[in-house]
């Protein structure tokens, strides 16, 4: 009970945002994540800064490297950055990570994580571009099969703030979001149909 005023103070801006966005609908437990995401997006756009004191410790590269180490320790899966070929990706910001386990190449992930004009402002998500399915034949490009399954391709899309310098730092909420979406992506990559 002693923390209730602090919790209320944290929720009030989110309730206000919901009121402006939806009208008089009551604030529900399931609204918190969505309106926290909207609130952070608005304030990062408006002020061009992060209010999160942990941000200086979470560069995108450090977080991706940490995810790779975590997946290696838990599941024997690691990420290896790979240069993209001309025309392979839909925007120059997109980065490719090849995914490996002890037996070799198991999938490809395209990470499109920064805001840009024309990119829809929507909650982060992952998309299966090509699933892992049993195939009879394979060719010599990225569709090369492993144990008779084609390599899955996943796109991970977020709307994180663009870096103001050559390094982009994430808020704690963005780190949580990246971990969450990466979990979905890795499930798709490591689960043959």
The major sheet is characterized as:
5 strands, mixed
Strand order of the largest sheet: 1-2-3-7-4
Instruction: Write down the overall mean pLDDT.
Output: 81
> What are the segments in which pLDDT stays under 50 over at least 5 consecutive residues?
45-50
CATH superfamily of the largest domain: Collagenase (Catalytic Domain)
Overall radius of gyration: 19 Å
Could you tell me the CATH topology label of the largest domain. Answer: Collagenase (Catalytic Domain)
Characterize the quaternary organization of these chains: single chain
Shape: elongated
Percent range for β-strand residues = 15-25%
Main structural class:
alpha+beta
Question: Number of folding domains?
Answer: 2
Helix content: 25-40%
Describe this structure in words.
The structure is a single chain. This protein is an alpha+beta fold and 193 residues long. The chain has 2 domains: 4-47, no CATH class; 55-190, Collagenase (Catalytic Domain) (3-Layer(aba) Sandwich). Helix content is 37%, strand content 21%. It contains 4 helices and 7 strands. The chain has helices spanning 4-22, 31-47, 60-75, 172-190, and strands at residues 78-82, 95-101, 104-114, 125-130, 145-146, 149-150, 153-160. It has a 5-stranded mixed sheet with strand order 1-2-3-7-4. It has a two-stranded antiparallel sheet with strand order 5-6. 20% of the residues are buried. Residues 45-50 have low confidence and may be disordered.
């Amino acid at each position: 009970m002693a923390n209730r005023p602090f919790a209320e103070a944290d929720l009030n801006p989110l309730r206000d945002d919901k009121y402006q966005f939806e009208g008089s609908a009551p604030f529900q437990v399931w609204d918190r994540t969505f309106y926290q995401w909207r609130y952070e997006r608005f304030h990062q756009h408006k002020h061009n800064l992060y209010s999160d004191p942990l941000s200086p410790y979470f560069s995108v590269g450090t977080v991706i490297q940490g995810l790779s180490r975590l997946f290696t320790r838990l599941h024997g899966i690691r990420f290896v950055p790979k240069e993209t070929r001309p025309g392979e990706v839909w925007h120059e910001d997109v980065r490719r990570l090849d995914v490996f386990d002890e037996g070799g190449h198991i999938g490809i992930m395209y990470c499109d994580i920064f805001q840009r004009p024309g990119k829809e402002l929507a909650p982060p998500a992952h998309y299966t571009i090509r699933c892992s399915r049993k195939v009879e034949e394979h060719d010599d490009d990225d569709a090369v099969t492993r144990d008779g399954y084609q390599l899955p391709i996943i796109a991970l899309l977020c709307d994180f703030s663009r870096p103001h310098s050559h390094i982009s730092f994430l808020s704690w909420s963005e780190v949580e979001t990246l971990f969450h979406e990466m979990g979905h992506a890795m499930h798709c990559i490591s689960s043959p149909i």
